[in-house]
Amino acid sequence: MYIPDDIALAYQDEDIEETEHVLTSDLEILAEYFKTWKLQPNPAKTEVSVFHLNNRHANYKLNISFDGTPLTHNEFPKYLGVTLDRSLSYRAHIKKTAAKVSARANIVQKLAGTSWGGQRKSSAYVIVVLGLLGSRILRPRVVKQCSCKGD
């Protein structure tokens, strides 16, 4: 059995009710596809979000159901590792990434000031420690989080 993951449906219209109608009918088609191919989606993990700049609709929650289950609204959905927000400004994502990098940088700073394993006078030792820890702790997080913006 295969459980589908990371599928996104998108629709753009000025009328929110039309958007709800179109997305609900698309989800009905998708549900039939899943049944045909014996796939089992999890409606409880499925979320909906609205992306727009209209402040009058800032708190609007879409009324969409999937396979008879109403879908939950997520104001800050995470898709493929990127946290999105209503205006697609990526502020929430940048804030989370900065907190992760800051925490890892604090670990590296604390390790740079220690004297275990070698002489503290050796600047090569500090560079090796920072280089190893940087490649395992700092670099993957920064590269992974920033790779989506290049294209």
Give a written overview of the molecule:
There is one protein chain. The chain has helices at about 15-35, 90-110, 125-145, and strands at about 45-50, 65, 70, 70-75, 80, 80-85. It has about 150 residues and is mainly α. Strands 1-4 form a two-stranded parallel ribbon. Strands 2-3 form a two-stranded antiparallel sheet. The chain folds into two domains: about 15-80, no CATH class; about 90-150. The chain is flat, with a radius of gyration of 22 Å.
Outline the fold blueprint.
Layout: H1 16-36, E1 47-48, E2 65-66, E3 69-70, E4 72-73, E5 78-79, E6 82-83, H2 91-112, H3 123-146
Parallel strand pairs: 1-4
Antiparallel strand pairs: 2-3, 5-6
Helix pairs in contact: 2-3
Work out the radius of gyration: 22 Å
Q: Percent of residues in beta strands?
A: 5-15%
Please tally the helical runs, counting DSSP H or I stretches of 4 or more residues: 3
Characterize the largest beta sheet: strand count, sense, and whether it forms a barrel: 2 strands, parallel
Helical amount among residues, as a percent range? 40-55%
Strand order of the largest sheet: 1-4
